[in-house]
Amino acid sequence: MTSPTIGVFALQGDVREHVQALQALGADVVAVRREEELDRLDGLVIPGGESTTMIKLADVFGVADAFRRRIAEGLPTFGTCAGMIMLADRIVDGADGQTTFGGLDVTVRRNAFGRQVDSFEAQVPFTTFPDPVHAVFIRAPWVEQVGPDVEVLARVPVVLDAATGDDDERADRIVAVRQGALLATSFHPEVGDDLRLHRLFLDLVDM
């Protein structure tokens, strides 16, 4: 059985960590910067980074339409943090004129969890795993609306604010979704050694 060839969008973002995680699971991994590299892929990862910079560079390098086309054709794709924004059909609080690759029928709020100083970690329960995922949120988006074909995989658990006793405003926000062969998380699963989400993605590639 041959290993799948997974591309990691490499014009900007946390490329190395995704490459290492996928290679640890036996995938052949390539950094993708050109249109012709897309045609040999079995799957694609769009990493965390800066979504506005990602789309600008994709336009500058003339590959944005090729990414949109391949995703629309059904290329299994995994977006993390900024990658979730890049897969979303709709953005709230995006930069003026900001566009995406699209494909995922969700509305995503950019930088919803706050600035860099508001980064946090949480144990997030998943519908697909018996144990929670240790999730690292860095200037992360959240999902505000999902279409009828989108499966919600995870939400931030309800946590009381220690100072006020009130529910944390981050609680119950959607942070992981799946639609067909598209998978997206608000956080960075490539941080740490938990490879379950990358394995779930590779299972989607094999379907």
Folded structure, characterized:
- The protein is an alpha/beta fold.
- Helix content is 24%, strand content 29%.
- The chain has six helices and twelve strands.
- It has a seven-stranded mixed β-sheet. A three-stranded mixed β-sheet has the order 5-6-9. Strands 7-8 form a two-stranded antiparallel ribbon.
- A hairpin with an 8-residue loop joins strand 7 (120-124) and strand 8 (133-137).
- The longest helix is centred in the C-terminal third of the chain and has 11 residues, at 196-206.
- The chain is globular and about 45 Å long.
- The relative contact order is 0.17.
Quick summary:
With 207 residues, this protein is of the alpha/beta class. The chain is built from six helices and twelve strands. It has helices at residues 15-24, 35-38, 51-60, 64-72, 82-87, 196-206; strands spanning 5-9, 28-32, 43-46, 77-80, 88-92, 104-109, 120-124, 133-137, 142-146, 151-155, 174-179, 182-185.
List keywords for this structure.
12 strands, 3-stranded mixed beta sheet, 7-stranded mixed beta sheet, alpha/beta, 207 residues
Uncertain parts: none
- By oligomeric state, this entry counts as single chain
Task: Please tell me how large the radius of gyration is.
Answer: 16 Å
Strand content: 25-35%
Largest sheet features: 7 strands, mixed
Helix % is 10-25%
For the largest sheet, list the strands in their spatial order.
Answer: 2-1-3-4-12-11-10
- Helix-strand string: EHEHEHHEHEEEEEEEEH
Mean pLDDT: 90
- Which class best fits the helix and strand makeup? alpha/beta
Number of helices: 6
Distance between the termini: 14 Å
